[in-house]
Amino acid sequence: MRRSYWIGALVVVVGGFAGFQQYHSWSLNKPQEKSDGRPAGAVGGERGQGRGGGRSREAVPVLVATAQQKAIPIQIRAVGNAEPFATVSVKSQVTGVLMQAHFKEGQNVKKGQMLFTIDPRPFEAAVKQTEANLARDVAQLQNAREQARRYAELLKKQYVSQEQYDQIRTNADALESVVDADKAAVETAKVQLSYCYIYSPIDGQVGSLLVNEGNLVRVNDGTPLVVINQLSPINVTFSVPEQHLGEIKRQMAAGALKVDARFQSDEGRPEQGTLAFVDNAVERTTGTIKLKAEFKNTAKRLWPGQFINVAVTLSTQADAVVIPSEAVQVGPEGQQVFIVKEDKRVEVRPVTVGQTQEGEAVIAKGLVAGELVVREGQFLLGPGSQVDIKEANKTTENKEGKKAQGAGGKRKPGQRGAS
Q1: What DSSP assignment string belongs to 68-132?
Q2: How many domains does the chain have?
Q3: Of the residues 195, 219, 242, which one is the last residue of a structural domain?
């Protein structure tokens, strides 16, 4: 009796446990309903699998652009540095006191314009001294010539010996050499006097005055008096990879290469110049070749030491296919674009980009003129996705309208709404 009781209790416990497991499994696998009564999985099924997971039933708003065919310059771009066309460090060639500077710092000066005056009085005295020595020796030379002439007549009459005549003639010749030396001394003294007045050797702009008035300046002093930079024309030096050297030389043989110069604060047209110099050796450590372009710089927009974005135009490609650079994406197989078909669905197509400049990409392969490409909104697209083409100007107007509406919707304190 007791044994049958325990067996019955065990059967009841095992049956209850099995029922609980079955209920628990059913409750976990039961589809949950949202507030609108639809299963949660139904919403996800309508939206699809996202990018790359199949076609989306909802059209993706995108901005598109048309591939255009036009002439594109083939350019080499680099970053260069502006350098003065000529630089002169003005130094004194005589020792003396700096009396006056005839310019202001930063002033534009012309070739031949006076810059400095060094105390000329010691040099004026030296000129007078050499001129006096010259006058004395000239007088002695004239007397020696007269004596030589008289002794020549006496020698004919045999009143004097040949030895006496030779002595007088030698003295006259020696005095002629002394007079020549005196003339050279006078010229040297005048040159030294001219060094007291320093003139600008070039057209340019002066920098800071490095030696003030009243200081003693010396010959070939280490510190220059001032530095003059010639800014018009001006040079821009830059380097390009050596693989472009052959093409550059071929194009230079056909004619002058045009060079455009831009800088960060440039708001107008780039400066136009020509390639003027190609270095005679490739830099071994960097594998680049040094180039130099010359610009007129009449407006002085380029400044020495300024970093310049340089573009050397080698040739022009007349039938290039061009699209906005933002339309080119990077996919698993390389660069690609999204092509919009007539049924408003997109096709992923690999392309080969030749070069990118000023926001435009030149497509060397994979695209023809007239095709529509997606330029914005690619993140939500996949192969076969349907798109809704938006106009860029309308999108901008909508954004500005929302901003204006948001600004107008703010009420001032105490202001009532319109009735």
Answers
A1: EEEEEEEEEEEEEEEEEEEEEEE--SS-EEEEEE-S-TT-EE-TT-EEEEE--HHHHHHHHHHHH
A2: 3
A3: 195
What residues make up the domain containing 276? 75-85+231-317
- Measuring CA to CA, how many Å separate 137 from each of 141, 147, 185, 186? 6, 15, 13, 13
Q: Pick from 195, 222, 251: which residue ends a domain?
A: 195
Give a yes or no: residue 2 inside a domain.
no
Report pLDDT for 40: 44
Between helices 121-156 and 162-194, what is the axis angle to 10°?
Answer: 160
- Asked whether residue 347 falls in the same domain as residue 273, the answer is no
pLDDT along the chain (419 residues), means of 10: 49 45 41 43 41 59 89 88 95 95 94 96 96 95 90 86 88 92 96 96 95 92 93 95 91 90 77 93 93 94 92 86 89 88 89 83 87 88 87 49 47 41
* DSSP-derived 3-state class of residue 318: strand
Provide the pLDDT for residue 106.
Answer: 93
Residue indicated by tokens 């995108």: 62
Please give the Cα distance from 11 to 371 (Å, whole number). Answer: 77
The reported pTM is 0.64
The CATH number of the domain where 266 resides is what? 2.40.30.170
In this structure, the answer to whether residues 313 and 332 fall within a common structural domain is: no
